[in-house]
Amino acid sequence: MLLGQRIKEIRISKGLEQKELAKLAGIGQSTFSEIESGKRIGIRTDILVKIAKALNVSTDYLLGLTDIPKSFDNEIPDFVKERLSKLETLESKNLKQQLLDISEKLKQIAEEM
Question: Quick check: 18 and 36 in contact, CB under 8 A?
Fold first, then answer.
């Protein structure tokens, strides 16, 4: 029942009616109502993802795997993404050296943050 409860709480906090959220998620209102009320026990992954995106929360939050509503994956600063992409050039080095290089890069990134 945690899934339905979380969906309902977030929907209400955003001032959305069931039919509005169902439309935003691209699913039928009756399907949505069954999910929110707990009458529908199983939920397809694609539907779960659509609901999470419509509510702007993570699927982990909806499933009760975390109490943090939003995933911060998209909030990684560009300079960190850039530096991490440079790590791919380390392929030709041996594993021990790669790990040492990665450690140094992570230290530099942490200092800049």
Answer: yes
Tell me which CATH code domain 2-72 carries: 1.10.260.40
Q: What is the pLDDT of residues 38-72, one digit of tens each?
A: 898 788 999 999 999 899 898 999 998 888 887 65
Q: What is the DSSP-derived secondary structure letter of residue 88?
A: G
* pTM exceeds cut of 0.85: no
**DSSP helix/strand/coil, 60:** helix
Element (H, E) at 37: helix 29-37
Q: What is the rounded distance in angstroms from the CA atom of residue 102 to the CA atom of residue 5?
A: 42
Going from N- to C-terminal start, the domains of the chain cover 2-72, 76-112
